[in-house]
């Protein structure tokens, strides 16, 4: 077997691991992490824009969290919150 063929076979599989497949997976994750970082920076910029427009960022975050929930779950939480407030005289 020629040295070039042996090197290709070693690159393709090392210790029972498909090196090309592993490299592909790692590179895909790295690209997605970079995209996530960029998206996080975009979201931060949007919150800064909201704040400069006079909106309360904490409340916006809370609304976003609520919108992710099921309506029945939101209603239950609001009912309990109201009950607890009344119990505390608020």
TrEMBL record:
Residues 22-49 form a coiled coil. The keyword Cell division does not apply. Residues 18-89 form the GapR-like DNA-binding domain. InterPro entries: GapR-like, GapR-like_DNA-bd. It comes from the Bacteria. Keywords: Coiled coil. The keyword Isomerase does not apply. Belongs to the UPF0335 family. This is UPF0335 protein MON41_07610. The lineage of its organism: Bacteria, Pseudomonadati, Pseudomonadota, Alphaproteobacteria, Acetobacterales.
